[in-house]
Amino acid sequence: MITKEQTNVEAQAIQAKKASKTLSILTTEEKNKALHAIADQIEANWEEILKANELDLIKGREAGYEEAFMDRLSLTKERVSEFANGLREVASLDDPTGIVQSDWTLDNGLQVQKVTVPLGVIGMIYEARPNVTVDATGLALKSGNSIVLKGGSSAIESNKKIVEVMKEGLLNTRIPKDAIQFIASTDRKATNALFTMKEHIDVLIPRGGGSLIQAVVNNATVPVLETGVGNCHIYIDESAEVDQAISILMNAKTDRPAVCNAVETVIVHETWLNAHKEALIQALQENGISVHGDKLAVEAIPGATEAKEADWAEEYLSKHIAVKVVADVIEAIEHIEVYGTKHSEAIISEDLQNVDLFMKLVDAAALYHNASTRFTDGGALGFGAEIGISTQKLHARGPMGLPALTTIKFQMKGTGQVR
Amino acid sequence: MITKEQTNVEAQAIQAKKASKTLSILTTEEKNKALHAIADQIEANWEEILKANELDLIKGREAGYEEAFMDRLSLTKERVSEFANGLREVASLDDPTGIVQSDWTLDNGLQVQKVTVPLGVIGMIYEARPNVTVDATGLALKSGNSIVLKGGSSAIESNKKIVEVMKEGLLNTRIPKDAIQFIASTDRKATNALFTMKEHIDVLIPRGGGSLIQAVVNNATVPVLETGVGNCHIYIDESAEVDQAISILMNAKTDRPAVCNAVETVIVHETWLNAHKEALIQALQENGISVHGDKLAVEAIPGATEAKEADWAEEYLSKHIAVKVVADVIEAIEHIEVYGTKHSEAIISEDLQNVDLFMKLVDAAALYHNASTRFTDGGALGFGAEIGISTQKLHARGPMGLPALTTIKFQMKGTGQVR
Sorted alphabetically, which HAMAP family does this protein's record hold (chains A, B) (predicted)? Predict the structure, then answer.
């Protein structure tokens, strides 16, 4: 049965597709002008946006959401300005479309060009944070794509207002306002309707918790760019320098525990643990970290509780850590093979042979030698902005900037060539 | 309920995954040696292979398969030698892995490298042709991937023998024989089991007819590289040169009508048709092409039957063609938007503005100006070999050579960097 939600969502997706055609032939300058216009409009309407945000906050307090959640949801004049500046930054980035990746001429004279072009329509399915509404729209438009936004219901009033303001911003620009579509229905059927709209939507990008991402991956026939669940490991090898190992581990665990590139399990070489356990215990205690360890870890670390099978797969996103003790780098690699999510994995070691094995055999988007996993981030790596961090292998892997929102066309120019 | 087929297929996929780890650390030379060893083994065992093939041919004749099908199925000593030479050619191509696509150093000294690596395990689901068994295996191994092969049941004896011989060929090489897995069960459940094995299989590549491809696309949670259904169009613009237009059209229709880059619909500008209909009619008749036209086409072309709605979407793969008459390039583009399969589309025109619109607005892997659609082919474009032609937009689009079978890793080397 076709529901009202499906019909509405389809109508919006069709509008987005139509607008994407206009978008695809605009110049870089025209797109940049539009991004600046949206940015200005957002800044000019900060009070309106905060008013709408207040409605979400009232609902959120009534629902008793946690503090961290409310913090991500709540906007201020400064945060709204950051949204606008984010758009201006995206405007300043290189246009990822129209780039000739390679060109050659066949013996018969046929000229072949492989050129980057927009994907078309991007479907963004995300949870609470209203900044995603602005960031994703900026990246989509800059790369010549329309966007269909489906945000979480807890930010619905903020998102609705932000989208309204962004569309107003497009009024005197060459980008049609239909290039931004916001799905206002909070019915799950509205989200599900996006999953199979292959004709109108070119790619779905889910951003949020594991269950949201799995729902999209398992049910969508539209191609998906899978983002972000990070069960990241740091392996401390026998030869690791103590201070370096502990400094990296503490940074990766405590700098921002709730993000996907934070470490969740530390794998420690048995010999290293025996030699340096005092320093490790002290650092864990000073930073208030709760340890879930295997048998050897529990014996070595006071206050550690025994890890259950589920702990090895857990993305704690808080000051908890699982500790596994191993006999060598191969055992560490095998543990990561079983429990890792192919996001970011680090080895701390002075043994270059072990480092080489780790780099080659661990299957993940980002591998680190003697550095914190926290660098897996478009901003930190100098991409300028990111639409998410891909944990899949096709199309884009790791932090995804503007190029991830493009595809290619082979353009052939001939003078009557036949085979 | 878990069936016996699922269990067996999973066991094979796990073996393939394990072998892929060994494969991923081999040198280019080691991989090339193994490809040559397989090639030699295939050539040495041509009689065995033909004997197995004869069993398939007997079954095929009993089942009353068409001649074209039997032709694709049947092997000769020469064809078997071509298989071997194909493998030697793949050995001669550049290794697509280990290529540093970009590298840079952050201000804090962290060195970042974006390096190409194998995907891991490739699941190949294909129909009758036994050459795919060899070609796909060669491309997978060269790019450092294991392969799980699921061929059509009509070629089962040929494929089984070919795989057996290829595995024998690996005996004294560094590639483990488990890197090649052949699913011998002809139960559909065995194929379906591959669809959801995300842990063990990194990508599925379906090659064959539309229904096979759709079954994979609609049911797989493993990422899919969608290949090949081509409902290709040639648009003959008002300004098209007559001889060129007709020569290109006839080539695209008659050179090899059964392949995906053959043309299925010609869209003709009304004015051009009125001016040049005699030449067009003569060419169609001389080449024995049956026409399914819209109203104007039926009026203009003797013997044409009226096209049904289904004709516009039909991949005839034979000497039939649909003919649509339009008033301008925009109408042509809109027709392709509705019925095209994003494969190969051509415009024959001397009007560069119309050409530009066509190139920008038509959403397809390959766009042609004044040339035949038949060039959408890895061999013809100089890729050396292809695993299929992608009609999707993510990861790889158009003919897919060795690089399509790789992904990237970010490899970071630090000296204790934290955020």
Answer: ProA
